[in-house]
Design a protein that fits this description.
heterodimer, A: 303 residues, alpha/beta, Rossmann fold, Alpha-Beta Plaits, four-stranded antiparallel β-sheet, 38% helix, 25% strand, B: 261 residues, mainly alpha
Chain lengths: 303, 261
């Protein structure tokens, strides 16, 4: 379990992370979302002891990362896939880590196979790797020590759609077998499909957190459409449900789908569409949460 | 990528495995010194330089031809080039940004730094051994290429002194690397600073005592000759404190306090 409590990191007068608290439970995937520069990487560096927090704590099962006897055997970390020696081969990078972790050389071949780098790619120097291959190697390094916890900063960066799909399956499987996963992204759709819990950070502060369903429930009502818009609006208002104009000829009702369906059925009005408003899942949530931070940030989150 | 391969990443439960031993960490650092093209080429260049020196001392007629002479002269390329390996042992972690992985796997940074110091020491001893081997070959071949006889005599004190000098010079490289954390900067300053210092203190006669007590190239010269006295060791020690200990302590603190990104 990862526990972050009141974590604050200042660089001089600049506050990079301010009073960040959240926990990641075993068996779950936590998506750590926010625009670039929101404080995701700083939080993760403080979590694994690469940066000292100005105040607050970050622990794994109650222990600071530096107190773990063999950190890599308990926590698999991928913070920057580009931070590797360009002159080493993929296999050599993993062999060095395997020596430190105290796992056998056969484990190197095992993880190389698991991330799809077995064979020729393993013998190539990293200078010839694409960003996607570096990400796969970084993930292999994180998995090498057979940890119970994964901390991954932007692991989908540079992966093709097929690679992103593959990584989701891997992380889901890891969590389903009792592992704890914390992964960050500035892209909503990378995380939305795999995360159980979402933590949204903007400008160094957490602006929203909770389970995916909780966060969805709090958003913009239900979109309804029918052949007769006026009749539909009348039926909903009669049932005491607030109505506002939606996109095109649709309406947005301020109630859940069940209540809306019951109301229109009682009035005998025909429906052609009934679904949560917003369509893009959490996109509207993001628009509202990070919108105040400036238009460019929103673009990044929704890109 | 199939379900079958995913079954393998079952998160493990149970007792936490113990951390890597200092021996393991030192072996890792030694491996890092030669598993890249830059490191391997540097070692090849050092070997070639030793061979070149052997050839010169064999074929140049008036060069002294005893084992102890060959032993002394083959140390020269080692003492110049091996510190670069010591510098790269530290700085490549920053220039290639591998420090992130290194210190994530071993979050207690001092352990990594101790391992680097130990690895550098092993490299220096290996360097002396390789040079000694080259000197053996040179001495063996001496009667073939010249009129001189084979003379195997050497004093244990001299071998010990040379070992000390080589270890100190490689550690000076490590110290400069730790302080500056940049390969080009550390390499240039490692060669330029002591040279400028030597020139300055040699030009001004009022600074003779500085040269005698703080100039490493002056104080280490007698170590290549037999029988260094107590004052010689003291003078060597004070200059080592300035050029090796001081930058290493400052660099150690810097690495401890800095954020790795």
């Amino acid at each position: 379990m990862i526990t972050i409590e009141h974590l604050t990191k200042r660089y001089g007068a600049q506050v990079a992370v301010s009073d960040v608290s959240f926990t990641c439970q075993p068996g779950t995937v936590t998506g750590f979302l926010g625009p670039n520069g929101a404080g995701k990487s700083t939080t993760m560096r403080a979590l694994v002891g690469l940066a000292d927090p100005t105040s607050g704590t970050a622990t794994f099962n109650g222990k600071h990362y530096r107190e773990l006897p063999n950190a890599g055997r308990q926590v698999g970390v991928l913070l920057d896939a580009g931070a590797q020696h360009a002159g080493r081969t993929g296999r050599e990078v993993l062999t060095l880590s395997a020596m430190v972790l105290g796992v056998g050389r056969e484990r190197v071949d095992e993880v190389l196979g698991r991330v799809g780098l077995a064979g020729r790619p393993a013998g190539k120097r990293l200078g010839n790797y694409s960003l996607g291959m570096r990400q796969r190697l970084g993930l292999a390094t994180a998995l090498l020590g057979d940890p119970q916890v994964l901390v991954l900063d932007e692991p989908a960066n540079g992966l093709d759609p097929e690679g992103i799909f593959w990584m989701r399956g891997l992380l889901r499987g890891f969590a389903d077998r009792g592992g704890t996963v914390l992964l960050s992204s500035h892209l909503l759709h990378e995380v939305e499909a795999v995360a159980d819990q979402l933590v949204v950070i903007a400008g160094g502060r957490i602006v929203a957190q909770g389970s995916k369903t909780e966060l969805l429930a709090g958003t913009g009502g239900t979109l309804v459409r029918g052949p007769d818009r006026a009749l539909l609006a009348k039926a909903l208002e009669a049932a005491g449900i607030g109505v506002s104009p939606g996109p095109d000829d649709a309406l947005v009702a301020a109630a859940e789908a069940l209540a809306v369906g019951q109301a229109v059925a009682a009035a005998g009005v025909v429906l052609t569409e009934l679904r949560p408003a917003g369509g893009g899942g959490l996109e509207d949530l993001f628009r509202s949460l990070t919108g105040s931070g400036g238009g460019q940030q929103v673009q990044e989150v929704l890109a | 990528m199939s379900t079958a391969t995913l079954e393998a990443d079952r998160p493990r439960t149970g007792a936490a495995p113990s951390g890597p031993s200092m021996l393991t960490l030192t072996r890792v650092e030694l491996r890092k010194s030669h598993d890249t093209r830059a490191g391997r080429w540097l070692l090849i260049v050092i070997a070639l330089a030793v061979l070149a020196v052997v050839a010169i001392s064999l074929f140049v007629e008036d060069a002294p031809k005893r084992f102890t002479d060959h032993f002394g002269i083959t140390q020269l390329p080692i003492s110049i080039l091996l510190p670069v390996l010591g510098i790269l042992l530290v700085t490549s972690e920053w220039s290639q940004r591998t420090a992130m992985t290194t210190f994530t796997l071993v979050p207690r940074r001092s352990r990594v730094l101790v391992a680097k110091v130990l690895a550098a020491t092993v490299l220096a001893v290996l360097g002396v051994a390789v040079a000694a081997l080259a000197a053996v070959v040179a001495t063996g071949l001496t009667p073939v290429f010249s009129d001189s006889e084979r003379d195997w005599g050497i004093s244990a004190a001299l071998v010990g002194q040379v070992l000390v000098v080589q270890v100190v010079s490689v550690l000076a490289g490590v110290a400069f690397g730790m302080l500056l954390l940049s390969s080009p900067l550390a390499i240039v300053l490692y060669f330029v600073l002591p040279t400028v210092f030597t020139i300055l203190v040699s030009l001004v006669s009022a600074l003779d005592w500085v040269r005698d007590w703080l100039d490493l190239s002056t104080t280490s010269m007698p170590l290549f000759e037999d029988g260094l006295d107590g004052q010689g060791w003291l003078q060597f020690g004070t200059s080592v404190a300035l050029w090796v200990l001081l930058p290493m302590v400052l660099g150690w603190l810097r690495i401890h306090r800095s954020e790795i990104a």
